[in-house]
Each structure stands twice: as C-alpha cells, then as structure tokens.
Here is the input.
Amino acid sequence: MQRFSPRLDILRRPQQQLWPELRQIPKHFVLYGGTAIALRLGHRASIDFDFFTNESFAPEKILSSLSLVAGAKVLQNVSQTLTVTLDRGGGVRLSFFGGLSLGRVGEPEETQDGVMVVASMLDLAGTKAAVITQRAEAKDYLDLLALLESGITLVQAMAAARSIYGEQYNPLITLKSLTYFGDGDLHRLTPEQKSKLVKAATQQRLELPEMPRVSASLASGQHFQARG
Here is the structure.
C-alpha cells in the first residue's frame, strides 16, 4: 500500500492531540469525508473523522476494545453506526459506519506515520459528487471545488460516483446542484467559488465514461491478509 504525508497542520489542536491514538482503529475502517480530503489537500479545517467499512461491526465492541474512546460521549449507537465525541482539550467527533455495500474505484493509501488508511482522491471525489445531491452544505461544495482544483475533473468525479453507487446515483442532480445556491448555507460561498462551480457544471456532458470498480472492498487487501 502506498503512503502519503497528511496535512496535519489543518487539524485543530484537539484533533492533533487525538491523532496518535487513532492508530488503534482497525485498518479495515477507511477514512472518508471532508477530513480525508483536507488531510490530502489542506484546503480547510475539518472537525470530525468519518470511518467507513464493508464489514459488519458491533458498536459495543468498539466502545469496549479501543482505549481512545474511554470516557467518550456517545451520540449515536445503532446497528452498524457509532458516533462519539471525545474531549482532548476540545471536542472531536468520531463516526464509524459499517456493513456498507460500496466498492471503490481507486486505491486507498496509508498516512506516512501509519496512523490510518484514507480513501483515494477519486473515491473521495465520487462520494462528494453524490453527497451534494443529498444536502446543501457549503463545506461539501468547498471540498468538491478543492478536488476539482487539484486536477480531478467533474466528469471523473461523477463517473466515480456512478461506479460507487450504481444506478441510484443521478449525475444530472449533481450538475443542477452546482448551479443553484439558494438552499442551506450555500450563501457562504463566495461569488468566485460559485462561478467556478457553475463553470465546471455547465461545461460537462451527461455521457459519463465507464469507470470500473477495482474492488468491492473499501480497504486494501493487504490489511485483510495481515489480519487473517
């Protein structure tokens, strides 16, 4: 598995305090979401960690087996989902989502210090292209814009989303979402940011190239072999 140097400078102090402890999290949990993108691109601060896995897991086992969550405040504890907040001189939220049927189109990478496994840029782009069809939050639009400015095209992001989510993903809704900013807190986006997103959306075709899944597992096979 390849490694990358995470942008730890974008983490708030409580997250930085927690960082070494995150090594305890089993490597079949892969980091997705805004913090995963921020650790790669350094474009904004993010306050939580979202871990995805295909494997089924019992939240109670996480709570009992990982010392890092000792004393945590449990916000959600239901089947295949656990969300807690930890105090490390300030609150940090950790979420675990299990039993997911998502596959991936890229290869996850491990942070250089071996603390965690992070989804590939293409998989992060695909999930963000889908997320903006479900909610209107400025942070998601900023994440997608950062991915586009890093060199990933909107066509690639939407093709990845189609591969990850299948027919339930509609790229037309992504394109519409990137041209309307009247919902949620999208007023926080600057005119320049909106202009860039509109330009990206209006220059794309709906015919998406096929982007095959490279694996039905979110994690690398290397970690499953190591655990087996």
About this structure: The domain at 3-119 is CATH 3.10.450 (Nuclear Transport Factor 2; Chain: A,). Residues 108 and 130 are 19 Å apart (CA to CA).
